[in-house]
Amino acid sequence: MYYRYLRKSFIIFLFSLPLISLWSQQIDEMRISGSFKQQPLLSVLNQIETKYPVKFYFKEEWFVGDTVNVDLVSVSFEEAVRILVNGSPYVYKIINKNKAVFMPREEVSKLVGLLSDYSENRVNGQPFIQIGTLEDEGKHKNIILNGHITDESTHEPIIGATIQVNNLQLGAISNIQGDFKIALAPGIYTLTASSVGYEKNQYNIKILGDGKLNIELFNKSIALDDVIIYGERLDKNVSSYQMSIVELDIKSIKQLPAISGGRDVLKGLTSMPGVKSVGEFSSGINVRGGGEDQNLYLINGAPLFNTSHVFGLFSVINPDAVEKLSLYKGHIPAEYGEGVSSVVDIHTIRTPPEKLTVRGGIGLYDSRLMTLLPIYKDKVFFDLSGRTSYSNWLLKKTKDYNLSHSMASFYDLNGTLHFALPKNQISLSGYTCRDEFRFASEVEYNYGSTLGSINWISMLNSKLDSYLTISYSNYKVTKDDISSELFQSRFKSGIQYTGLKYKMKYSGINHHTLDAGLSANNYLIRPGDLSPLDTISLIDKLSLESETAYEEALFVNDEYTISQSLAVNAGLRLSGYKHPDQEFLYGIEPRLSTRIKLNDQSSIKFSYNRNIQYISMISPSSVTTPADIWKLSDQKIKPLIANQYASGYYQNFLNNTIETSVEVYYKSLINVIEYVEGLVNAKGVNYGFEFLLKKNSGKIDGWISYTYSKSLRRTSGEYPSEIINHNHYFPSSFDKPHDLTIVANYHFNKRFKISANFNYSTGRPITLPERKYFVGNDAVVVFSNRNEYRIPDYHRLDLSITCDESLRLKKKWKGSWTVALLNVYGRKNPYTIYYKAETPNAINDYNPFSMYKLFLIGRPIPTLTYSFIF
Amino acid sequence: MNKILGIFIVLMMFLTSCKEVYFPDDLYSPDSIPVIQGFISEGSSPKVTLSRTLGYYENTVNFISGASVYIEDDLNNICELEDQSNGVYLPVIDDFKGTAGRTYTLHVKTPDGLEYGSLPQYIHDNPVIDSMFADPKTNIRISYNKESDPIISDVEGLFVYTALSNNDDSTRYYRFNTSVVQEFQYILNPNSFFPITVYQWKSWELGQFYNSDLSVTINGRQVVPKYELGYLQYFYDPFSSNNSSTAPLPIAWIVSLRIYSISSDMYDYYNSIDQQLNSDTEMFSPIPSQVKSNIHCVTDPNKMVVGAFEASSVSVIYKAFRFIDLEKYRSKLLSNFPEDIVDGSQRDFPPNFWVIL
């Protein structure tokens, strides 16, 4: 109806033009004055119309309830109109200097070509942005708007931001690179970009043809980082088809108190349901009851075979270098293989910096530094980050003889050269890390990894992208046994990986996003070379034969949005494996995930995954060590196969500021490796229930996660050397039925924040001596069934206070201090329990042997960390 | 700076791993299982001990009485053993001896009706001991004072080795049992008119009872060229003399070495015991496994039994050593030496076994 009203008015204006010209001189000189204190806008407009030769055109219902509080002192008509509607969602057009036509802003977007005639309402002062060129006008029915959204201060991409087209049921969510796409007809629109922790921003755009829109959002808090698990922002946890995924922005990891003040990316993952670790200082993770070797860790597409420094004290991943980490613990997309329990996909910084940026931190035992260096505008830039420890000189100062003759040091270094070309992004990445560890004069370990990858993302056209990754990874371990002069030896082992993956993504079919691709990789394992360390050593040189194998795969995947409520992600991976000692093996790995949206705040999801893994780690202990050996599948060690079924219910509250989810899963495993007198194949069953409650904003934020799970194994051998627990089910080393984590952050103000982290979990299973007998004078024990007992339950509370130095965004140097107290009440959580024969004494109650409880943090530990960025 | 350093060191000490003796509350006391330990060596009569395992916190051994025990050789000769007491079973007739080249199998039937049998055990020829020798060297000794501060000192003494070889190209396994008797001499009331010479001796087991073999192959023959038996520390402090007594002067060590030639499954048995007794991997302890036994339950293979049956040949060598300095030592091969000598002393004249170098 208002269209007819407007057009009617326009016709009247046309006929009135000659008369208007006689008034022009008078109207030019017209000044409006009046004092309108808290008066209804409708009344004010009426008064002005009565007093002055002017006319206002609008729908009364728009201004019902609106009031104004203004003083007009001899202002022009246009100025008076501007003042009256300032701050309101209305635009106006002045016609013939004495007529004003009002219209709501969002209504104007439906009128092609008229918006440019309307004034700018100065709510945010943004002009219209033209997408495409004038030559494109009228040539296209549908346009793809490509966008990129970044943080205004750090220029990092904002992942998971929502871009909504006002008044249309259209929108997009930014992806890992901060990119988004929206299909629109040519016209004028208003986009609203928002993300938790950022000020909402609106953009008026005029679309003529294909083009790109860059959006920047401003932080709400001006200096501190919010605790955000960004992957769950807004309603993504409800609306996304993907289930059983944890996406961590490194900002959230910074909030967790970490051992020795350093932030640990993998430790952050263990606060989420379904993700645990074997011990307090273990950097490896166990996902839904799976072993550490069942996780595929990728850094920029290259696999990482050892994830810990100093035998688990730190993880090898420098948190400053990480832009995003995605953990797939259930539905693993078809493009990923090689890990049946999870995929940890880590990407380092990819956003071009505007200027040189340096970020780092100084802790008590290690320090880190990260540099972003632009080389040529925003087209070529380089990032380099490093970390090193300095514990050796501290060890030398200790009184303990063994410690003072010990050594523990590490470093890691990674860098990437980026080329951001038109429609192409190429990055050359490298990573290296090294550990040296020696205990007294007994044994010395040297181990480290070298990774390299080339990633090429190409936008072939507006609907088709291609992704190419070439990767290399090499892990080596050297162990020197120097405990006996006659038998001093050196043992070396390692694994080398080269791989290629190519994928194409097509989004040209409505409601479908298709992925298809292939991958090929080669493993080369050196199981062990033993050699004498000195000429007087009696050790004979011995080498185990190297083994190599090839793994290939074809994969296809379709994200299909059937309706607003129903979405399906269906994928298929065909994997092939060739080892010289056996015939070609192949596997069919379906990957299926479904989301049924019940309403805007809730959904249910189902998934089924089949994964095949052709490589395993041999570890005779329940804790993985850097010296454990990788083994390819062969005639004896068969490929590990997992089938996982999962379902979940997701419910958000209070405009998605509170998120809850409940997931249940069941996973069956075939050909899990267990260790008796040698390696045996076993079956496994893992099942569990996971609950997550998360609050994303406000004075208090954080999350509560609880997991109940079981992880069981069973052998089926015929001979005693193949049988564990009489071939009955027994708990695996990763079976911890109850796991509770509470992370809470309280923001006193914009500078100070206090954080608390509490964790409780059932003790892990262990085998203990139950009986004994004597051989001569020595007591020999008989152990219980495998994993029949448990170490005492684990629980620990950490607290920290963070103080940010500066509130002013523009200050060049920004620093923050974090004071933390780990293990607040001094819980002596056992890391393991072991049995040892020794001389009877008062401490062990005069037994010829003892059981010992080993704990690594036995008292509260204060830490202090200074972090900076400039 | 020193204060800051001290803080760092203290913080570092916080992170040092700690351990406590652990007494689990929920340790289950399952039913005991039979312990069968049998032994026959070349030229000796067999001996079998039957008992039951104890609970982890128990101390009283329960022996098995009334069992039926016999040993059979590969010529179908049977030696029945009789319950003597305290679980010890000895031959009824004493003419059954171990013989090199024969194979022996142990059979036991316990009073509850279960039958147990061992793997056949072959007795090899006696091990050929080429020599026992020493190497004067210093060694590092770590002790702690009452403040728990470490005291590191260099000590002098002798590393003792043995060398042995096979007569054929078969792979052999050995068990080493080394005992030492050390002789001392000192003077009581040295300044008196009638000073008394005291001859003192101490005995102990050197090294570990369960030693593994380590051999190399030279010209097709298995040779153990230099197997370390242990370290004999020389200690003499003349300044500890006083008016009532001079400082004890070490005279000699007499080393008695018994080398048993055993089967591969007995080697596995002793090796697994050795691993259990010497396990010190703490953080990265391997998943515990049971000590391997070469005895199984014939009646019910699922029934557990521990212990082992050893049939072996043995060679013995006795040698005396005297430390002079780090450049030289004296030694003397002995034809025999008494077994099971306990600590003691006597005055004025030395005991019969006394060796002077």
Outline of this structure?
The complex is a heterodimer of chains A (870) and B (357). Chain A is mainly beta.
Structure, explained:
The complex is a heterodimer of chains A (870) and B (357). Chain A has 870 residues and is mainly beta. In chain A, 9% of the residues lie in helices and 53% in strands. In chain A, the strands form 12 sheets. Chain A has a 22-stranded antiparallel β-barrel. In chain A, strands 6-12-11-8-9 form a 5-stranded mixed sheet, with no helix packed on it. In chain A, a hairpin with a 7-residue loop joins strand 29 and strand 30 (489-506). Chain A is elongated. Chain B is mainly β and 357 residues long. Chain B is built from 2 helices and 22 strands. In chain B, a hairpin with a 2-residue loop joins strand 7 and strand 8 (88-91). The longest helix of chain B has 14 residues, at 2-15.
Key attributes of the depicted protein:
heterodimer; A: 870 residues; 22-stranded antiparallel β-barrel; five-stranded mixed sheet; 54 strands; B: 357 residues; 2 domains; 16-stranded mixed sheet; 2 helices; 22 strands
**Total number of distinct structural domains of chain B:** 2
Structural class of chain B: mainly beta
Question: Average pLDDT value of chain B?
Answer: 84
Measured as a percent range, the helix fraction of chain B is under 10%
Globular, elongated, flat, extended or rod-shaped: what is the shape of chain B?
Answer: globular
**Rg over CA atoms of chain A:** 33 Å
Order of helices and strands of chain B: HEEEEEEEEEEEEEEEEEEHEEEE
Based on secondary structure, the structural category of chain A is mainly beta
Report the portion of residues of chain A in β strands: over 45%
Strand elements of chain A, count:
54
Largest sheet of chain B: 16 strands, mixed
Radius of gyration of chain B, in Å, reads 25 Å
Helix residue percentage of chain A: under 10%
The most extensive interface between chains reads: A-B, 68 and 64 residues
What number is the mean pLDDT of chain A? 82
Oligomer: heterodimer
Residue stretches of chain A low in confidence (pLDDT < 50, at least 5 long) are 5-25, 109-125, 221-233
Roughly how many Å apart are the termini of chain A? Answer: 57 Å
Number of helices of chain A: 10
